[in-house]
From TrEMBL:
Organism: Flavobacterium fluvii
Domain of life: Bacteria
Keywords: Signal
SUPFAM superfamilies in the record: Carboxypeptidase regulatory domain-like
InterPro entries reported in the protein's UniProt record: CarboxyPept-like_regulatory, DUF5686
Pfam families documented for this protein: CarbopepD_reg_2 (PF13715), DUF5686 (PF18939)
The protein's name in its UniProt record: CarboxypepD_reg-like domain-containing protein
Span of the signal peptide: 1-18
Amino acid sequence: MKKFYLLLSLLVSFFSFAQIRGTITDNKGIPLSLVTILEENTYNGTSSNEHGNYELNIKKTGKHTIVFQYLGFKTQKITVSIDKFPFIQNIKLVEENLSLSEVVINSKDNPANAVIRQAIANKKENSEKTARFKADFYSRGIFKVKDLPKKILGQKIGDLDGAVDSTGTGIIYLSETVSKIIFEKPDNLKERIIASKISGDNKGFSYNTARSTIYDFYENTLDFNSKMISPIADNAFNYYKYKLEGTFQDDNNLMINKIKVIAKRDAEPVFEGYIYIVEDSWAIYAVDLDIKGYRMHQEYVDVMKIKQNFNYNKNNKIWAKNTQSLEFSAGIFGIKFNGKFSYVYSNYEFEKAFAKKTFTNEIVSFEDNSNKKDTTFWNKNRPIPLTLEESTDYVKKDSVHKVRNSKTYLDSIDKKNNKFKILSPITGYHWKNSSQKKSFNYDGLLNLSSLSFNTVQGWNLDSGFSFRDWAAEEEKGKSTSISTKFNYGFSDYRLRLTANYYHRFNNQNYATLTVSGGSKVNQFNPEEPITKFINSVSSLFFVDNYMKLYNKEFAGATYAQDLGNNFNLKGKLEYQQRKPLFNTTDHVFVKSDDIYSSNNPLLPDDNLTPAFEEHHLTKASVLARVNFGTKYISRPDGKLNIRNYDYPTLYFGYENAFASNENKYQFQLITSQIRYDFNAGNKGTLGINLKAGTFIHGENISFVDYKHFNGNRTHIGTTDRYLNVFNLLPYYSNSTNDSYFEAHLEHNDKGYIMNKIPLLNKLNSTLVLGFHALAVPETKPYTEVTVGLDNLGFGKLKVFRFDYVHSFQNGVQENGVVFGLKILNILE
């Protein structure tokens, strides 16, 4: 079988439709990858693959001058006379001889600094030359894995549809796109994808787009999770040292300066490597830079390499980027990853201005049948030849995909996996019809992952059934699921049942309908400020039963959909019957003189008085979400909204409680919220969350319907950011049935300050400053300030955070610490 794949790959290569092709090596015959090949004084170019093979599309016979450009080697021009295609042109490149003979070096004047200062002074002018253009774009991405285990957390991984071999090694992602783009700095983009190809998925659409490839070193910062400082940023000398390695002449007799870029401080968000600057114009000739993973706060990444090559056109005197590559190596838990993304820009058309309606909210679209282009199309339009490994992967995975998606194969796998075992009633059962895209799941009587403890139910666990139908999801985005959940409390001896129906209508406006009902225990605060896991530990080990519960029997429906790009509307109607609950157990793991507080949040020492009277009512609510400046990608398999973080997100809500057994429980509530992340470049991000609301006729409503605030008395944080929680506030101390205002601000310096502090910079952590305030009538405001360190951990596992908190209300000050355990998000 391997010989078959090899033969087929060679045949694919042999019948290539490229007009000029060949192999590029050095003097020793070693293949050179990422060599830039282009037709002189045009933007018709390509790049060589890992084996030095290239293909350049020349449409006419006759004389053509071809330029071969590669960093560290002399640029070569070859004039060829072509009378027929394909035309074979192999070439050997000679290493460049760098010269320092004309440079006078002294301790007071570093010649590299002079070049960088000129590059900074002229970058606005050079950037403007390529500020608006049309171009052809090609992208290819490959992602490989090594040492992938057979199981992760007890779950079988398998061979990922033929991607990995028995050693856990293989290509798990390979994809290509061909598109036409229109671009205007800084971020206006319009891309039309002509062809899209994913290895092993003949119906898939690649996510490789030009949107994710825009790395402009003329800008002060580049976004690689962190804001990385450009070597020619306005403040670059605060972060870098430079060394002039030498100069050389390019094929246009222009002198190129090779500058070594050296980090001043190891933990800063900086690059290392080389930047090449053209003398006199001070434009970028090329970049060859590395990013260490910890510098961009992606510890699992070892290193990322970015290379860019620019070519010069004598006709318009513009240096334009024609190739770019991103390579990375990464690893965690013994699993190693590496990948490479290659990009080619060609056939530029530079514009002085675009018509006003050129750019719309749609940034990416796909031509019809873009995922159905045949081999002939790809061999003719693919600028970088496939390597043997890539060709083999396409052939192998396409074959595997065809077999493993056949009804015969799917039915045989389902038959094996759907066997009912003797322990299935206890451990659970899963049934699936892969060809019809339906599944059924039973959680089992002993669903230990759901086991938790609270003082109302004691130990309790869940079981349930679920059914899902996603047959129309790929084409129209429709999917349907039906589920039931059984919850049994071993202390209150009560079984509670809920049922849920969910249907998504399409993948364009993502209209959804949810119908649900049943009986369950609810926290008084519907945002559930304390998790089941944290409450179980807090109760059993520390006798702190912070979770307060009531019983809710309900039936209701929710409908939501996008109304345009910027607006989402959700409506909900629900009947509720509420009953108070009491503690039924005093069970603890650790003996203590302390006793549990009551289940009444208002009277923690009173185990007899209920928190409210039993009652029922109906609630109708509407919530609107507005995201300004939202862009979107129009994919045949769905519309993807791209939030614009330059603008805040607004929420407006209205809730009306009516049809209650007593008029006093009826009320209206109007709410609003603003969420915004202010990006301060390399100085970090300021997160803002402001909330306000007011009750109408809420004087005598049930405590269930009060506005409750997300407090925390466990000293454990479970979220990445604390923008929706008060770190020391008692859970129900400030609950209100009147007006309220709360503010949460949190600034993460992304290492801007911490990277400059000796010893502490070894932690590679970030400094987090927070301010939280709450105002309700008839009591003094609650405020707290926080100072913390984020991105703490061991090795590549950075899942911890530590904050010192100082709070103040009614003349009472409190100090405390919060330990952030973000890994608990996974457990929950």
